[in-house]
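Input.
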Amino acid sequence: MTINLSNGLTGLSLLGGTGTVSFAPQVKTETAAVIKAKKAFTMPATTPPWREKSLSAPMSAQIAAIRRLSSIIDRNTDNSLEKLPDIQTAFTTYKALDRLRIVAERAARPTTPESERATLQKLFSKGLDDLQTYMAGAKTDLLTLNFSHPSRQSESLGIQPIDASGKFRGEGVGTVRAAPLAGLAGNEIFSVSLSRGATMETVTADLSLTTQPPTLDSVANALNAAIGATPLLDGNGNPVLDAGGNPQSLWQSRFTVEKTGDNWGLIFNTAGTEQASIDQVNSSDALMIASGRTASDGPTSAQIFRIGDPAASLDPSRLSTINALDGKATALAQQETAADKSDGSDNDADAVVLSPTSAKAIVTDAEGFSYVVGTTAGDLGTSLSDGADDLFLTKVDSEGRVVWQNGLGAAGTGEGAAVSIAPDGGIIVTGTVSGAFSGGDDSETDMLVARFTSGGARTFATAIRAVGNE
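Output.
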């Protein structure tokens, strides 16, 4: 696709395939009265206050001015903006980026000598470091600035077994078994990770090598062929044969296609203690978001959103909500509901009272599970509250479904602030805690570092103490 933008969008051309669609505004003739009115109300061009006054100067002079600076960050952008930290930070950041642009343009000129280009590279790198340091500690109220860091994204869904037989049922995808699968192009590659005790293997299934377009049966066949390709070996390294003389597979778990209700879907049949996870290779990125929302008729809740393609439309899909239960208030409400019903009332309203629940941070691990840390005074999962604020950690899959929830269990109060993934997969959370936690002073607030396993077990929690509040 080719898009031509010029002269304030006087024409837009879209080129794709063999057809061309062009859009151009109609030319309208203005009357003498309109021309006179425009002249009367046309203001002279203005220069924004954050723009460099020396933009009209030669580029060499601008580069020389930047080199004389001790830092690319000009903290004295405008003293009149001290009471407007968001605006002052935005202006300071813009000026720094504008200086970096000048350096980059100078270095990109074909006539710039290599010796000067090396000096400009050092100047640009130092300026970028200064900008990142400034943005990390900039004063803001409503403005959030972040440096972008590349990251990989994967999705993971935890599917519960249907029963003790070891069958795992995926969602039905259609009423016709042989129908093409919507959303699959036919060139997808799936990675299947298998494990049984200490034995592990990862195999891949390439849908481009199967019947096109993909159907449930062709996908199941491709996955089963990849899973069954590795032979079972005996102690001497020879393949183990079945009764018919055929090599047995190292893995016995398989996919089947079954109908549940009106829809057909995939069923994963596990054998013994075998476990499996399936991922799409080189799948598109997605963005997981934890946010807070206060309903008009309820307390603040932590909500999980997902943006399917951050490089395109930034339309988030709300996946789920994390709400803590106010145990005491709910018990009282249930008593009142029971009393109303005993009097012959038809009140069937659910007697559930929620407690304010706020999310502070979210991080996603290599398997696609996200961990949300925050603060609540209510009960979450098996973590029962004593009525005071406490730190909570919730694990969700890529569809926002809760895998497990855990709390700090502080005797006083606790608040979650940040969460990170350790190299070995452990979950590190930080926050604050007060009260009798690890021998702390009831009157002071201390910093907290706690570690959880990916399964939700807390391995340690340490309060970092000093005189006064932290």
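The chain is about 20% helix and 30% strand.
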